[in-house]
Design a protein that fits this description.
The complex is a heterodimer of chains A (250) and B (140). Chain A is α+β, with helices and mostly antiparallel strands and 250 residues long. Chain A has helices at 2-24, 61-79, and strands at 41-45, 106-111, 114-119, 124-130, 147-153, 156-162, 180-187, 193-200, 209-217, 233-235, 241-243. Chain A starts with a helix and ends in a 7-residue tail after the last strand. With 140 residues, chain B is an alpha+beta fold. Classes of the chains: A alpha+beta (250), B alpha+beta (140).
Chain lengths: 250, 140
């Protein structure tokens, strides 16, 4: 009788300890377990022969003409040695989805209810909130990274982003306030992490624009700090990239 | 085994090509002359360890004793750190030799491609597509 009680108490104790450990370490369906891969860590862009080159954006004809004309003007300006200043010259980060393009490394953190992606360049951060309803676009204040929700579908993280500022352009492609970025993030058997990005924006695009980035793991790399500070590149009054020379040199 | 190594080289080359293309998209180096380089020997007046790019200011004395000041743009300090650079490798007063692609507009500035530090150590900068800058032989 007494021994039985001790056994029951011991079992009860073990259960309590297990529950406590689960709560303490936040073990949940949203962290690496079962089908959910462990993608926490540092990554950098890598070519995967199975990933096709990004297609041209399927812009509607009037937007396509404008975009091609701007691209041509940029090429001609560069050929003359007077490149048009990109927004990064102004110390402005790329935002979404440009921050996923590299070339600097990025860090992915999986925590309870959230996947966080930190891009080393310009210390850009985006948060993908798991298992939440997407908001109506008018409820999101437009920004560089927008508002992202996501969920794991087997081993694939399905992310859905809205609320990207219209002046935050990827490859200078225009978009409306209704831009919708859908991502399928998955780990391939070759260890390459893939982010299949689909941009939907019926205002400017004929059809969704899909392209994929591949990343390889950087097992020993810790992201470095990156502050855009005292940039001597600047945009002149014509919007051309110039270098501020310091005649005193001090 | 040999095939394995070759595949690895090809894959590495593809990665580097990809990196170069994307790196180029960040900041344009089109303001610099790709057809020649300056070989400058001078005194460091400032080593600006910053992002998006580092900057080296040097005073160069010409054969007539006239000092000309140059501002040389480097790469991101993150890229420099990844290949072993540290902020304290260069300081004001150091005598250095620099190889730089000059500004096309003729102003006294350039893109720093290579430096010989005060201790004699020669270091290349991880400039994307550095091989597209044709080097001019140093007369020295």
């Amino acid at each position: 009788m007494y021994a039985n009680m001790i056994r029951q108490l011991r079992t009860f104790g073990l259960v309590i300890i297990l529950i406590a450990c689960t709560a303490k370490f936040g073990l949940s369906a949203q962290q690496p377990s079962g089908n959910i891969p462990d993608i926490t860590g540092s990554w950098e862009r890598a070519r995967d022969p199975s990933i096709p080159n990004p297609p041209q954006p399927p812009l509607k004809s009037q937007y396509l003409k404008e975009w091609q004309a701007q691209a041509q003007a940029a090429r001609e300006a560069s050929a003359k040695g007077q490149p048009i200043a990109e927004r990064v010259v102004l110390c402005l980060p790329e935002g979404m989805p440009g921050m996923m393009a590299g070339p600097f490394p990025m860090e992915i953190l999986q925590s309870k209810g959230q996947v966080t992606i930190i891009q080393e360049a310009y210390t850009q951060v985006r948060r993908i909130l798991l298992d939440r309803q997407q908001k109506p676009v008018d409820d999101v204040e437009p920004g560089f990274y927008g508002y992202s929700v996501g969920h794991w579908d087997g081993g694939t993280l399905m992310a859905d982003t809205i609320g990207i500022r219209e002046d935050v352009r990827y490859q200078n492609v225009p978009h409306s306030k209704d831009i919708h970025i859908k991502e399928r993030i998955s780990l391939g058997p070759n260890g390459i992490l893939r982010d299949e990005i689909t941009i939907e924006d019926p205002t400017v695009l004929e059809k969704p624009w899909t392209f994929t980035y591949g990343y390889r793991r950087m097992p020993d790399y810790q992201l470095l700090e990156y502050i855009c500070e005292d940039n001597r590149e600047y945009a002149d009054e014509k919007g051309l990239q110039k270098i501020r020379l310091d005649p005193a040199g001090r | 085994m040999i095939f394995d190594t070759q595949v690895r080289y090809v894959f590495f080359a593809l990665i580097m090509f990809g990196m170069t293309c994307t790196a180029l998209a960040h900041h344009s180096f089109a303001v610099y002359d790709h057809t020649r380089t300056l070989n400058l020997k001078g005194t460091v007046t400032k080593w600006q360890w910053s992002n998006p790019h580092a900057y080296l200011d040097i005073d160069v004395r010409d054969p007539n004793g006239v000092i000309k000041h140059y501002t040389l743009e480097g790469t991101s300090i993150n890229m420099l750190q990844r290949v072993g650079w540290r902020s304290n490798m260069i300081k004001a007063g150091d005598q250095v030799k620099a190889v730089a692609a000059p500004l096309l507009n003729g102003e006294p500035g350039g893109l720093l491609l290579e430096i010989t530090l005060a201790n004699g150590e020669k270091r290349e900068l991880p400039v994307p597509a550095a091989n597209t800058f044709k080097r001019t032989a140093d007369p020295e």
